[in-house]
Structures are given as C-alpha cells and as structure tokens.
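Async update (no meeting this week)

Hi team, since we skipped the sync, here's where things stand on the single-chain job. The sequence we agreed to prioritize is pasted below, unchanged from the tracker. I ran it this morning and attached the output directly underneath so nobody has to dig for it. Comments welcome in thread, and please keep replies under the output.
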Amino acid sequence: MSQNRPHHGKNGSRQRPRGADRSAPSGGGRPVRAGERQDRRGPSAPAGSVWLYGTHAVAAALKNPARLFRRLVLTEEAQAALAAECPSPWPIHPEIVPRETIDQILGARPGSGIVHQGIALLADQLSAPALLDALQRPGPILVLDQIFDPRNVGALMRTAQAFGACAVIAQDRNAPEETGALAKAASGALETIPLLRITNISRAMIVLKSADIWVVGLDGQAPSRLRGEAFSGRRVALVLGSEGEGMRRLTRETCDEICALSMPGGMESLNVSAAGAVALYELTRPAS
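Output:
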C-alpha cells in the first residue's frame, strides 16, 4: 500500500453505492439520539460523578489512584468477591446494605440490564488527558464516529486494552458519557485506557496525521482488505462508524485509507465491538 497520503477533494473523495452499509454495525438496536437520552451520568449520580457497579469495574476503580470516591455500597455476600479482586483495606469505607438497597440506588429492575453483583461505587468521573498527551502512550488508536451504545463503547475499550491501544477517541456529543453500563462492559479498561471526548473528530484525525499516524477507516464495502503486514512500521488509528449511518462524510474523507475485514464465511458485517476486536488483532498480530 502506498505510503503517500491520498488527496480527498470534491472529486477525489470515495463514494459508496447508494444503500450500501458503510461500516461494521454497532448493534444494540436503534441509536439513541440527542434529546432522547436519559441522564447520562447514571441513576442518582450528582453532577461530575457516576455510579459504577459490578465486581470487575468497581475493583479496577478502587485500584486507580486517579479516582476520587464518594460512596461504596455492597452486600455482605459480595465482600469476599470484591476482596479477591482488590484486597482490602480499600480507599473508602464500605457500607454493608441489603441487595434491595443497591437495586433502588441504581434503578435495577427486571429488564433494566443492570447486573451489579451486589456492589456499587459512587465516584467522580475521570479527567481525560489532552490528545497530544495521550499519544505519548504506545500503541494504535481507536476512533469512534457516532457510536452511541455505552455497552459497545465499553466493549471496545476492553478490546483496546487487550490489544495495547493507547487511547479511544469519541465525539463528545455523539457518544455516551462515562456510565456504569459502559464501565461494566469495559471490565476495568475504563481505568486504564483514556477515553477522549473530542468536539470535532475530523480535526482530531488531522492532529493524528500530523503526529505521523496513518488513519484507516473500517467499511464493509471497501474493495481493499485490512492486512496487518501492509501497515508494518506504521502507527495506525482505526476509525469505526455506527450501524446504518457508518462514518460521516467528512470523517470518511479525512481517512488515509478505507479497508474492509476479510470474512471468507460470507457475512457482510459484524457488530462494531466484534469488528473492532478483529481489526485490532489484525493490526497488532506478529508478522508470520
């Protein structure tokens, strides 16, 4: 593949066939649009804070020296499970409460999707580093364009941690804030992988390019296939778009290259968290 960056102008941008799926889908149903969202801080959380829940998410938060804690509630039965993940003494004194109390705090009810395992932690939201500061960390970068589902974002953060990514970038107004659902899906990765919310994704991609990072968009309809060996010696930012909408036009045009996953089984696309995992594996696997 060429080392020269393509010129994307009015006549040089790549167009998709009308009606074609522009990206690996995000799954999780219809994206929630602005104005339709519930309080993105989570249930009963004061401004600037978030209720985290589940053994792995809470244990990882308690180990994070950058976290500030407000309240830790857990059932008597959950103490041993949390201590196994994060040995006591903990940086905050726990309140031992009935499971019903945690259900009430979190709004957990049948069909809510909140599985707290008898543990919940009220903590301040994390402060994200500046983009250029985050790039001091090694590894590829994951760029999320209009991925709304917090569980998909959390799963992608877990994948990013697994494959040594340096950061996850999302657009501020088109991505979920830090929530308990996101943290639980991330399974501790929220504490170790910076999640940067950027006002303008395209401008952030230009900054990545100026830092000698090759920006690759993932699109199930692209004619070329993503091959890790083609990017040997280059640091890559992988751009993922949402289901149906895919990458927005300007995001797509700002990419250096558009690639599709190789799927010999015949599937047209994957859920975005699965697609991200396959793509990061392909980009980071040792050369054969």
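Quick observations from my side:
Confidence is low (pLDDT under 50) at residues 7-41.
The first helix runs from residue 55 to 63.
Reply here if anything looks off.
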